[in-house]
Design brief:
- The protein is an alpha/beta fold.
- It has 2 domains: 169 residues, Thiolase/Chalcone synthase (Peroxisomal Thiolase, Chain A, domain 1, 3-Layer(aba) Sandwich); 152 residues, 3-Layer(aba) Sandwich (Peroxisomal Thiolase, Chain A, domain 1), CATH 3.40.47.
- The strands form 3 sheets. It has a 5-stranded mixed β-sheet, sandwiched between helices. Strands 8-11-10-9 form a 4-stranded mixed β-sheet, sandwiched between helices.
- It is globular and about 55 Å long.
- The chain starts with 7 loop residues before the first strand and ends with a strand.
- This is 3-oxoacyl-[acyl-carrier-protein] synthase-3.
- GO terms for molecular function: 3-oxoacyl-[acyl-carrier-protein] synthase activity; beta-ketoacyl-acyl-carrier-protein synthase III activity.
- InterPro entries: ACP_syn_III_C, ACP_syn_III_N, Thiolase-like.
- Keywords: Acyltransferase, Transferase.
- It comes from Streptosporangium becharense.
Length: 342
């Protein structure tokens, strides 16, 4: 049977951002060709202070969401943390660290390290838990991105400016608004190494002497190497990216018993307006009903993009009760989509 496996909805949102920085003014600190970055169309990005880490941002967003929902942390049945950048420490559980910040114990926690789609399919893991545990009623999902500038150049990894931010949502069983309908995800592992950092792990624990993100090859150069300088193969890879997004959205629709025509809003990664339009147009969704106007003022916040944009749209009254919002994203090799009915 098509339809939700469990009735739950988002009852509140919480947000935490690094300090606002102007892209045009800061680009020269990160790359030798700042015009290339400026031409992507991003105006502002968020950069956390050096002493503010992912756990700090996640805890700030979580406390705000809990306060707005009128829920105490010790009432939570599940805490899920989705991260999309380098963890603060090795051999360390960021979800447990978040629970400690919230001063709770003996609560289920789950850590997702699945890249930029973690906030989208994290909703599925919450739904799965509530479906299999009838005594669980309330969950907290936090998606956070805090760029480690030692490991990544925030303006030379992908064609977007990477930002530091967190978003938290409180989900409650039988909540009547912002209801989770379905999630679809799949993995195509061929290019799973495309954006990896080659050191810091067990294979290469230490970077080469003199290595720096300021002059290290960027993500776009790695993509060219991956495809051997063959523009036709690269073009086909980029086209497939959008085809797979439509496929995963259709899969979510099938699980929810809906069709493309039922979707009223689309929220993708904080990418360029051209990229967002490439997903929205085949669905018949105008750019005004996407996150295209929000992305330039936030930059790419990793796993936090989609839930931040959904929360802002709801708070601004841009999404009407009953509207169906498709949240979708790509991690390296992973496609995902979640449908929410406002």
């Amino acid at each position: 049977m098509a339809g939700p496996i469990v009735d739950l909805g988002i009852s509140s949102f919480g947000f935490a951002y690094g300090e606002d920085r102007d892209v045009a003014s800061a680009a020269g600190d990160y790359v030798a060709n700042p015009e290339r970055v400026i031409n992507w169309g991003f105006r502002t990005f968020h950069r956390a202070a050096d002493d503010v880490q992912a756990t700090d941002l996640a805890a700030e967003a979580a406390r705000q969401a809990l306060d707005r929902a009128g829920v105490s942390a010790d009432a939570l049945d599940l805490v899920v943390l989705a991260t999309s950048d380098m963890p603060e420490y090795s051999y360390w559980d960021g979800a447990a660290a978040l629970a400690r910040e919230l001063k709770i114990e003996r609560t289920q926690t789950l850590l997702l390290n699945e890249g930029c789609g973690g906030g989208v399919h994290g909703l599925y893991y919450v739904a799965s838990t509530l479906a299999t545990q009838p005594d669980a009623d309330t969950a907290l999902l936090v998606a956070v991105n805090r760029v480690s500038e030692f490991h990544r150049n925030r303006m030379n990894t992908i064609n977007a400016v990477l930002s530091d931010a967190a978003v938290a949502v409180v989900l409650r069983r039988d909540h009547p608004a912002n209801r989770w309908l379905a999630t679809e995800q799949f993995t195509e592992p061929e290019h799973c190494d495309l954006l990896r950092v080659d050191f810091g792990g067990a294979v290469n624990p230490v970077p080469p002497q003199g290595w720096s993100t300021v002059d290290a090859p960027g993500g776009h150069e790695r993509i060219r190497e991956q495809f051997g300088g063959d523009p036709r193969t690269l073009r086909r890879f980029l086209e497939t990216r959008y085809e797979r997004l439509l496929e995963v959205i259709d899969g979510a629709c099938g699980r929810a018993g809906l069709g493309r025509d039922d979707i009223t809003h689309l929220i993708y990664l904080n990418d360029s307006a051209t990229s967002i339009a490439a997903v929205a147009e085949p669905l018949g969704i105008p750019l005004a009903r996407t996150n295209a106007d929000l992305a330039p003022d936030h930059g790419h916040m990793g796993a936090a993009d989609q839930l931040v944009s959904l929360g802002v749209r709801l708070e601004n009254g841009d999404v009407a009760p009953g509207d169906v919002v498709a949240l979708c994203g790509i991690s390296t090799g992973r496609w995902c989509a979640t449908l929410i009915r406002a």
